[in-house]
Amino acid sequence: MVMAGWATESDTRRSGWLAFAASVLVVGLITYGSWVRASGSGLGCPDWPLCEGNLLPTLEGDTAIEFGHRLYAGITMLVVATAAMFAFRSRASDGVLFRILGGSLLAIIVQAILGGITVLTELDGNVRLAHLILAMATLALLTAGALRGLGVEGNSRSDVKILSILAVWTGFVMLVGGSIVGSGLSAGCPELPFCDDRSPIDAAWMHGIHRTAASLLLVALIATGAWLKRQKRTKLSVALHHSATFLVALQIGIGILAISQSLPTALRVLHLGMATLIWWSVVSQWLLALRPRSDH
């Protein structure tokens, strides 16, 4: 009985560490996906699930970039599956963890299918947006699994409401940004800080909303940072909040630089990578507020 209990506890922690590793991989995967898009390599493999009709295509140019993304996604899926397996083994002691990581596995499988649909629809903007949204949801689920599996201490429940608003607002900023990219309007507003007569009306509206919402998010993070500092919070949560505030400020600077430099590929990729880190830090704070806090 003692050995069985030890194995269960060990499996729970293994699933937590693997979920954390998978979270890191997903951040990289989303950023890699941005490189595929920004470099024009989305149809480097014009078919799916094969690539140019082969399991292993000739790795050159756009094909190498797109196939590398598929390979990376496959490795990430295996890590998520392994985390779910360990959670399954320890489900008798923590069924919630298994449901979280089982949901993560299901999400990443659907994500792979959406990736295939993206190719088969020749990079349809709405499918690409759904692909991004599901990737962010997968990252949130894996983070929840990591926090639970590793038994990370939570924060006061008084944080939940305000952190929920910040998480929703961050998701909204990303959703508008993803819609701009999916609609092919990234270059539709070449002026700063607001669009001018060169911008189509739909681009002007979408870029205006995105820029305003991002600026308000920075203001909200700065303002809530002072309030949350007075609450009973863990060092991890405080560090995450400071990181999110710094990253949003940096992200705004990157966005301005990208526009002034006519959207170079490197800055476009960095922009989504930074957005992913911002989402991860904000949603992690929200998840910590949902976890129990030790009184010791």
Describe the structure.
The protein has 296 residues and is mainly alpha-helical. It folds into two domains: 1-151, no CATH class; 153-296, no CATH class. It is 75% helix and 0% strand. The chain has eight helices and no strands. It has helices at 2-38, 61-89, 95-120, 125-149, 160-182, 201-229, 235-260, 265-290. Helix 1 (2-38) runs antiparallel to helix 8 and helix 4 (125-149) packs antiparallel against helix 5. The longest helix has 37 residues, at 2-38. The radius of gyration is 20 Å and the shape is flat. It starts with a helix and ends in a 6-residue tail after the last helix. The model is unreliable at 1-6 (pLDDT under 50).
Q: What is the gist of this entry?
A:
With 296 residues, the chain is mainly α.
Structure summary, number of beta strands:
0
Write the element-wise H/E pattern from the N-terminal end onward: HHHHHHHH
Q: Strand share of the residues?
A: under 5%
Categorize the overall geometry: flat
Mean pLDDT, as a whole number?
Answer: 90
What percent of the residues sit in helical stretches (DSSP H or I)? Answer: over 70%
Q: Specify the number of helices.
A: 8
